[in-house]
Amino acid sequence: NAPLADVDPEIAAVLQRELDRQRGFLEMIASENFVPLSVMQSQGSVLTNKYAEGYPGRRYYGGCEEVDIAENLAIERAKSLFGSAYANVQPHSGASANAAVLHAIARQGDTVLGLSLDHGGHLTHGMKLNFSGRLYDIVAYGVDPETSLVDMDEVRQLAREHKPKVIIAGWSAYPRKLDFAAFREIADEVGAYLWVDMAHFAGLVAAGVHPNPVPHAHVVSSTVHKTIGGPRSGFILTNDADIAKKINSAVFPGQQGGPLMHVIAAKATAFKLAATDAFVDRQKRTVRGAQILAERLTQPDVAEAGITLRSNGTDVHLVLVDLRGASIDGKQAEDLLHEIRITVNRNSVPNDPRPPMVTSGLRIGTPALATRGFGDEEFTEVADIIARALLPNPDVAALRARVTALADAHPLYDGVESAGQG
Ligand code: PLP
């Protein structure tokens, strides 16, 4: 039981450098966050040793008394947080949760209607190389080219025309709230299941700063590691007893073998934290931060450089920058921000004239910085740094110094000396 630094100094060095990177950069990838040490301790624990195929009280292995308690805590906390009757907390990731959802409520070849990838949907919503695109007959809706909003008339028209078995409401890159009630009305009209993938905005839902899809959808899937800020993993909720049974069977034995009990314990811890006032405050700062970013990035100096925001603003945790009219492209903007130590990801915009490895967009999110303690003042400073970086002839050294001042003022994992905290 020698320490990692002795057993594997190369990996120990990777962990240490990654901790330094996370501390020194401002993390603005919209799907990332920082888990608290308590979550890391649950995740880096002896529960990683345990096989527990099956569900609490109905396992295919002995010795599951303690992991049963952990999984039941995660289930009960998920149900209470989102107000659902049933929860499955075993999916290893968001993508495996989504595979289980389709496995449960559709059959190979069934028609599935979802938001197209290049308009903000996720790979698992029907991208042709993904299992979803290979196994199901995918019809995609998009966003309106003028407003960048999902057009419910188009969703209704496609649903009437194609009679899908499943309609997906959910996104990876969309700056507004979806109308879950309208989606459900359309699903009911054509006899489809409504599946909401709230992977991105689940933390906002848990905090009550975004509508809850659970009362509207037949089934809701999510990740735990984005706005919630828990371990990298997924979960599935429903209010329907019959669908719950199908979901359980689709996850195990349908999709997975042994559940990751250490991750499930960490989910329980994350869900407990998500029920606190501090969590609600953090989600409010997250949304406010994105709005501050949107305000700055729609000022005249930015507009004059041909830079706009899709939908002209946001009501969630991210903004989508549109660089189609700018001289700088998505790749150059991502690289430039990296140079000043802000991490974002480039993103295609609908009908992007530039290739997918270049793109004409940026997705910028605020969850990780809100977790780091940022409020109005810090987000105002970050927003100005980003705006000035994207304008012609930025002073890279000066902007990097401003980033470093913010990072230094908000220490991450303060007092932690080693990045491996299990
Ligand atoms: N669903 C949505 C909407 C997502 O944005 C993502 C992740 O980006 C996923 C599912 C998949 O999650 P994971 O990366 O954990 O498989």
Automatic annotation (TrEMBL):
The record marks H225 as: Plays an important role in substrate specificity. InterPro entries: PyrdxlP-dep_Trfase, PyrdxlP-dep_Trfase_major, PyrdxlP-dep_Trfase_small, Ser_HO-MeTrfase, Ser_HO-MeTrfase-like, Ser_HO-MeTrfase_PLP_BS, SHMT-like_dom. This is Serine hydroxymethyltransferase. One of its GO terms (cellular component) is cytosol. It comes from Microbacterium faecale. One of its GO terms (molecular function) is glycine hydroxymethyltransferase activity. Residues 4-386 form the Serine hydroxymethyltransferase-like domain. It is found in: Cytoplasm. The keyword Translocase does not apply. GO terms for biological process: glycine biosynthetic process from serine; tetrahydrofolate interconversion. It comes from the Bacteria. Gene3D superfamilies: Aspartate Aminotransferase, domain 1, Type I PLP-dependent aspartate aminotransferase-like (Major domain). Catalyzes the reversible interconversion of serine and glycine with tetrahydrofolate (THF) serving as the one-carbon carrier. This reaction serves as the major source of one-carbon groups required for the biosynthesis of purines, thymidylate, methionine, and other important biomolecules. Also exhibits THF-independent aldolase activity toward beta-hydroxyamino acids, producing glycine and aldehydes, via a retro-aldol mechanism. Thus, is able to catalyze the cleavage of L-allo-threonine. Belongs to the SHMT family. (6S)-5,6,7,8-tetrahydrofolate binds at L117, G121, H122, L123. Keywords: Amino-acid biosynthesis, Cytoplasm, One-carbon metabolism, Pyridoxal phosphate, Transferase. The keyword Ubl conjugation does not apply. The modification N6-(pyridoxal phosphate)lysine is found at K226. Its EC number is 2.1.2.1. Pathway: One-carbon metabolism; tetrahydrofolate interconversion; Amino-acid biosynthesis; glycine biosynthesis; glycine from L-serine: step 1/1.
